[in-house]
Amino acid sequence: LLSFFFSQVKKTFKMGRRPARCYRYQKNKPYIKSRYCRGVPESKIRIYDVGAKKAPVDLFPFVAHLVCDEKQQISSEALEACRVAINKHLVKNVGKDGYHIRVRAHPFHVLRANKMLSCAGADRLSSGMRHSYGKPIGVAARVDIGQILVSIRSKDSNEAHVIEAIRRGKFKFAGRQKILKSLKWGFTKYHRETYVQMRRSGELAADGNIVKVHNRRGALEGNALFEAGQE
User: Fold this and answer.
1) What is the rounded distance in angstroms from the CA atom of residue 43 to the CA atom of residue 75?
2) Strand partners, 111
3) pTM (predicted TM-score)
4) What is the dihedral of CA 217, 222, 223, 225, to 10 degrees?
5) Helix/strand/coil (H/E/C) assignment for every residue in 121-132
6) Distance CA 101, CA 208 (A)
7) Are 149 and 103 spatial neighbours (Cβ–Cβ below 8 Å)?
8) Residue 98 and residue 4: Cα distance in Å, rounded?
9) pLDDT tens by residue, 68-83
10) How far is residue 21's CA from residue 18's CA, in Å, rounded to a whole number?
11) Alpha-carbon distance 209 to 83, whole Å?
12) Cβ pair 90, 165 in contact under 8 A
């Protein structure tokens, strides 16, 4: 009779997802998917670049970042919710070709749960804390203080909309984050004045949504640096 009851319980029992507050802090070592850790659910966030991701580097000079201010874990569900919220606001106010969002935190850390029965008579059937090493239930990104979570590039005229979009996306995360305006041009590593100067001199060449530095090799005919009078 007991075995019949247990089989019925197993059929009807389905545990809900645990609240993210259970996994907010980095308490354990990084635990990633591997040949030893199998059966890990897929990450909820599959798209990390949204919008006009092929827009030339010169088109979007303005950049703003969402920067984490705590050492914590952020679930893939939260990252996806943030991406959707930011994208929705920008599509409505800027247009789908007026921005480029890049999510820069990637969820690799596997979250586990020791599933317990929560029905009548569960205390007879469950094994308590015996063999309590849990099964994978999701993935999260381990982030540090000062780490960039999301970056958005756009035109200078869209600055207010970009900052408002990031502010809305911020509510999807636990803890504290900061919104920072970058001094650099787009997703490049060059400050605005330096970027303009190097582009004019031919030292930098546009390469999709980033730039490449002239390697100062090759024939002099048609060489941008040589024609600009540089060594």
Assistant:
1) 9
2) 138
3) 0.86
4) 180
5) CHHHHCCCCCCC
6) 15
7) yes
8) 61
9) 999 999 999 999 999 9
10) 8
11) 20
12) yes
